[in-house]
Recover the amino acids of this structure.
């Protein structure tokens, strides 16, 4: 069976693990996204420059052919060849310019002259009259495959290798396609995917261990640039960012671990101190009087546990009571409070059997016979009647009906009165309460506060009182703070009450003095 303590430890362990994994995962995701965005932007800028550079070279070649066709010079004359030579030298990517008559190249200038560059079949023939040959074995001269464009009587041969500036690249392998046909790549043996199999933008090719980027430019000519680089180069580029982010992530994880350790140290330290305080009877009890609303006389009190650590630090009950439950000390705590009551008020309870002290118990106390056996032994040794100790439990303690009901029946048989505390804040209904043998119903402070107000709860308290009467239960209202509330409750037939209107919680000695005066 998994105890609440086990659940707390499991929860803390899970929170610790999540506190480590979630920040690291978030940091890793953020780092990856930022790196991808930065790399995509960098490669897009590189590709755009290469695309615009290629487009500019093709547009310039087209305009050059226009101007050469308009020359009024004798074809292949020295003057004509000189003009062709000047145009070729002025453009670093141009290898040759030639003159054609019909299907034959008559002459040319540059690195390729005469009929040396006459490929048999064009790659593209455009409606404008432009004829183009993409780099291939048919356009190769000196082992270099050239791009050839002809318009009218002239042609321009471009070395496509020079359309890619190696100085712009940083460990990238780059390929250039124009109108879907390969134009150039760097280095010449680069293994690159084609544009029709590569999505626009940045993608990771894990099979090849590389990052691939495709950029398309479609203004005058459809130009595609494919850039690829090893994943290692990608991470090297962002190594400094990785280091900074990793340090930041470690700081977050360290901070979270310190917080968890602090919590566990305090939790375990408090748990150990509580165990020691229980064992050494260092817990104290304050008593809040319960009065008879009909005559204002003291009918007893509710025992409220107090824990003062060394150094006068006070630990609130809403801290140490759940701690006792989580660490399996709930019944030990209840029995320690019982012993304190008997030490403080044993003589008074023996002398005044009409008074009773309400002891708060929980479902943990009723989960076994241990509490009932210890209660009977403590009362017998103190010579105090069972009726002097009234047992209060909350609505949530009634969850395990069969086991709880059997033990409550046994406690009532011995002479203990049973009260249900903070009624109205849980889930109980008339049919539910009928299954338990109870003596007193305590109305929660929330409903007393609503008396004479237009709040929804101001109507509910009347129904609660009627419910208690139908079950023949005594009624005690908690949290009474005004005479008006006392008058209203008395008029409704409520028997008892407690709250600051009568008294704040008192020490044992102050409580006895208060009772002597009331």
């Amino acid at each position: 069976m998994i105890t609440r303590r086990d659940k707390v430890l499991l929860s803390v362990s899970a929170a610790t693990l999540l506190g480590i994994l979630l920040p690291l995962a978030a940091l890793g995701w953020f780092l990856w996204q930022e790196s991808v965005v930065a790399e995509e932007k960098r490669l897009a800028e590189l590709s755009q420059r290469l695309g615009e550079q290629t487009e500019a070279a093709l547009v310039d070649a087209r305009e050059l052919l226009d101007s050469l066709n308009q020359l009024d010079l004798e074809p292949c004359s020295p003057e004509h060849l000189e003009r062709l030579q000047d145009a070729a030298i002025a453009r670093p990517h141009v290898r040759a310019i030639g003159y054609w008559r019909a299907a034959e190249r008559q002459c040319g200038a540059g690195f390729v002259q005469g009929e040396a560059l006459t490929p048999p079949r064009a790659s593209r023939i455009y409606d404008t009259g432009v004829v183009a040959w993409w780099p291939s074995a048919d356009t190769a001269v000196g082992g270099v495959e050239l791009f050839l464009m002809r318009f009218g009587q002239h042609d321009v041969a471009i070395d496509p290798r020079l359309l890619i500036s190696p100085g712009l690249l940083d460990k990238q392998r780059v390929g250039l396609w124009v109108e879907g046909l390969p134009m150039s790549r760097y280095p010449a043996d680069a293994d690159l995917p084609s544009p029709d199999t590569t999505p626009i933008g940045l993608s990771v090719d894990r099979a090849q261990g590389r990052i691939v980027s495709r950029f398309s430019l479609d203004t005058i000519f459809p130009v595609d640039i494919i850039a690829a680089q090893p994943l290692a180069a990608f991470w090297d580029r962002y190594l400094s960012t990785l280091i900074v982010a990793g340090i930041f992530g470690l700081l977050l994880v360290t901070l979270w671990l310190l917080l968890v350790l602090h919590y566990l140290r305090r939790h375990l330290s408090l748990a150990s101190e509580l165990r020691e305080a229980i064992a050494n009877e260092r817990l104290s009890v304050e008593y809040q009087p319960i009065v008879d609303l009909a005559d204002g006389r003291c009918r007893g009190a509710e025992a409220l546990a107090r824990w003062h650590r060394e150094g006068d630090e006070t630990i609130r009950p809403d801290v140490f009571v759940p701690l006792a439950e989580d660490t399996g000390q709930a019944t030990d705590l209840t029995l320690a409070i019982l012993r304190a009551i008997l030490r403080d008020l044993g003589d008074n309870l023996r002398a005044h059997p009409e008074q009773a002290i309400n002891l708060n118990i929980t479902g943990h106390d009723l989960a076994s016979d241990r509490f009932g056996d210890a209660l009977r032994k403590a009362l017998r040794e103190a010579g105090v009647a069972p009726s002097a100790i009234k047992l209060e439990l909350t609505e949530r303690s009634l969850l395990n009906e069969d086991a709880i009901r059997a033990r409550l029946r046994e406690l009532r048989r011995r002479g203990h009165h049973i009260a249900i505390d903070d009624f109205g804040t849980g889930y109980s209904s008339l049919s539910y309460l009928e299954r338990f043998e109870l003596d007193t119903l305590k109305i929660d402070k929330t409903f007393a506060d609503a008396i004479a107000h237009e709040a929804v709860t101001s109507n509910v308290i009347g129904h609660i009182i009627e419910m208690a009467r139908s079950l023949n239960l005594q009624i005690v209202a908690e949290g009474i703070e005004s005479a008006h509330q006392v008058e209203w409750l008395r008029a409704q037939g409520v028997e008892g009450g407690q709250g600051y209107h009568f008294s704040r919680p008192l020490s044992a000695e102050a409580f006895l003095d208060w009772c002597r005066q009331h």
Summary: The mean pLDDT is 84. The chain has 13 helices and 22 strands.
